[in-house]
Design a protein that fits this description.
418 residues, 7 strands, globular, binds calcium ion
Length: 418
Amino acid sequence: MPIKGRYFQALVAAGFAIVLCTAATIAEAKSNQDFRAFVEGLWPAAKAAGVSRSTFDQAFAGVVPDYSIPDLDIPGRPKIDNSGQAEFTKTAADYLSKPYLEKLAVQGRQFLAEHKPALERIEKMTGVDRYTLVAIWGRETAYGTYHPPKDAIRMLATLAYVGKRKERFHDELIAALVMLQRGIPRSDMKSSWAGAVGLTQAMPTEYLKYAIDGDGDGKIDIWRSVADALAFTARQLQGKGWVRGARWGYEVIPPPHADCSLEGPPDARPIGAWVKMGFRKASGRPFTKAELAADAYLMMPAGAYGPAFLAAQNFRVIRLYNTSDLYALFVGNLGDRIRGEGDFVTPWKAFAQPRTRTVEGIQARLTQLGYPMDKIDGKIGSNTRKQIGLYEKSNGLTIDCWPSDRVLTHANSQAAEH
Ligand code: CA
């Protein structure tokens, strides 16, 4: 190519680059303008909640949306595979890592002794046992050694702006502004991407509803006072229906004829009825009279490839704190270990975590075939496992209640016949 031609080409390329740059800058400016307008639109609600204009302005000074938050609802943006939350992307065996649980249990027992008077007070006041409380603190921030790096106001504002549950995060954002109005330092509003704050990682609306002064120093400090943070957590669990004196649930050994399709809340029944069906405690100890009368449902987080549990009311309550079977099981088991009890009796078998696409495919196909799913979301919840088990059972397949290419291929061929 002659020099002139090259020069011309370079000029055209530069011109294009400038046009592209300008377009990007304009788009960015437009997007920032839209976000500012969104923030300004929050003012009436903030004002009505008692937030002053100066608190409001200081809260949002320099705040821009964080589009790196997983699972946002932005038109035209390719869907990110899964939410990135450990509860949904790790296998049960990885998430419930034995060395990590053991380490947290050893530390937990030390904190149990260190905070004994406060924990006794909280237990008496709320009925929530000290083991569960210390376990939640351990799970959420590794006893305060983990410091979430993100700005909670920025996270909540982004989620209220372009998240999938805008109304929910709008309310959380307003609650966070009220916290600032009450004098919480801006620098304490640190969170992970979901906007939860403090030693036990709780949402701002929960703070406004349940936070109290647990150590009696006249201040509520869920960032530095363990007694304040755990009293707050206990009140949250109490508010969600905690049963005083009861355990979260029990690892059980199912009888040979039982299968994993019995899993899930719709098949809940008194523990006495499970015992009549042949289920027994994995520890070998008998159930007490009170335990036999309590309702529980079967939960097998790895389908046929791991231990089985009877999940009682307090398991449901922990799940309301953080909606994940593995989370609730982690907290329950860590609490048991802190109490001095041990490991899971049935081991987790090694297996590959299926791809989100495979799980979604199975959920969609089974729904078509009359096996109702709550959501087609690629997450392996109780009902997804149960419906897979029922499908396997009625089609004469090996019953493992676990999403796999084997089940997807079978369901695809069934759907093609319909
Ligand atoms: Ca206090």
